[in-house]
Design a protein that fits this description.
Blueprint (H helix, E strand, L loop, with lengths): L11 H16 L2 H12 L8 H17 L5 H12 L5 H5 L2 H19 L22 E6 L19 H6 L4 E12 L10 E8 L26 E5 L3 H5 L3 E5 L19 E2 L2 E2 H9 L5 E4 L6 H14 L7 H27 L3 E7 L1 E8 L6 E4 L4 H14 L1
Antiparallel strand pairs: 1-2, 1-5, 2-3, 3-4, 6-7, 8-9, 9-10, 10-11
Helix pairs in contact: 1-2, 1-3, 3-4, 4-6, 10-11
Length: about 400
């Protein structure tokens, strides 16, 4: 196990056990919880491993003191260990500075657990243990856009006007429950785990969920061409958003096993809100081909994207090679941006292809072939853009 600090919980053992402490003391009385914790810990190590045992026992005593449930026995055993330098060998071997810092921590720890503790606190488990909805159920829920602004995903995305975004308030979008994923299961209390519900999202914003025909739904892209996302397995926000179950169907077999993006219903900040996140996935943006007006700096982002596709990002390179790589990329970026600026200064026209996200642009000087800046690798968009530019001549 790793140790990164002299603090009582500055090690992997303590951090791993904290969730087990919460589960055990939340589910059992103190004596039963202590017995089950001790049995679990002894499957990994015992008092003969002094360093590990200290990380365990000191963190247990501190946890119990903070919750107002520290027993005299646990307190006295922890104090006796500290007074007898139990587990100090590794700190002494680490040098005088490390030993001094650890002894200071231990003295503070002794003062803490021998001081009056608070009244017993109810231990709250920061997990979602309920399994919401059945796999295959189609769920419609309301958007809540009235008091929010639409925030594009990033600079290349189209801005939905505020009045249009606000008009979506109390209208419905549709998702389908796919499966549940379990995280952080407790060994001591198997019932305690953190569940996340995986859904797939569909295009469309609806006035009345009763009018939705589930067989006609078209999957939305929630990221990387996938409709899948996950949320905390809690009914709280679904109830606030007037959810309705509108049917049940088969679950897709092609769902990925992990790596889902998350939707946080409670998120509402100046830079991000859940309703913007949903709308940008389900709103039926039309494919547009037109002359670009203003905001030409978006092409700089396209240039950066193209450089990444062409040369990679230098991940895994030794430091010296990485520095050379960054210098090469900086030079190439400067040259491409200068070329773009030069064409624009000479009166070049810029044509864009967009579907919410700016997919690419063509910069055209009279008599010259267009120079393409593509943010996507799909050939069809490049062909459509070239054809459109030719039609403008």
């Amino acid at each position: 196990m790793g140790t990164w600090g002299a603090g009582i919980t500055g090690n992997d053992t303590a951090q791993d056990l904290l969730e087990e402490y919460k589960a055990a003391f939340a589910y059992y009385d103190v004596d039963t919880a202590l017995l089950k914790i001790d049995q679990y810990v002894r499957t990994m190590f015992d008092e003969s491993d002094e360093a590990e045992w200290c990380d365990y026992f000191y963190s247990l005593a501190e946890f119990m003191w903070k919750k107002g449930i520290l027993t005299d026995e646990i307190r006295d055993r922890a104090i006796s260990m500290a007074d007898n330098d139990f587990g100090m060998d590794s700190w002494i071997e680490a040098g005088k500075s490390a030993e001094k810092e650890r002894r200071k921590v231990i003295e503070q720890f002794k003062k803490k657990i021998t001081s009056p503790q608070c009244a017993p606190k109810k231990i709250k488990l920061d997990v979602h243990m309920d399994d919401i909805f059945e796999d295959g159920e189609y769920v419609a829920f309301q958007l809540k856009t009235a008091d929010k602004i639409y925030i594009p995903q990033y600079v290349l995305c189209k801005k939905i006007p505020d009045d249009l975004f606000h008009s979506f308030n109390d209208k419905y979008v549709v998702i389908q429950k796919v499966c549940s994923r379990i995280f952080r299961p407790s060994v001591i209390v198997p019932e305690v785990c953190d569940r996340w519900a995986v859904f797939r999202m569909f295009k469309g914003i609806y006035n009345d969920p009763e009018d939705i025909v589930t067989e006609d739904l078209i999957e939305a892209d929630y990221g990387n061409g996938s409709p899948f996302f996950e949320v905390e397995s809690s009914m709280f926000y679904f109830k606030k958003r007037g959810y309705k179950i509108i049917g049940k169907g088969s679950v897709p077999e092609y769902k990925p096993l992990d790596g889902y993006p998350c939707l946080y219903f409670g998120l509402n900040t100046p830079n991000c809100n859940a309703d913007s996140d949903v709308v940008k996935r389900v709103y039926p943006f039309e494919l547009e081909l037109k002359e670009m007006e203003g905001n030409i700096e978006q092409l700089y982002w396209i240039i950066d994207s193209m450089l990444g596709r062409e040369f990679g990002y230098g991940h895994g390179l030794p430091r010296e090679e990485y520095q050379k790589f960054r210098q090469m990329i900086a030079k190439e970026k400067s040259e491409r941006r200068n070329r773009l600026d030069d064409m624009l200064s000479r009166g070049a026209k810029v044509y864009e292809i967009r579907q919410d996200i700016l997919l690419g642009a063509a910069v055209k000087l009279p008599g010259d072939k267009p120079v393409l800046y593509m943010g996507t690798t799909e050939q069809k968009y490049e062909e459509m853009l070239i054809k459109y530019v030719e039609e403008q001549e």
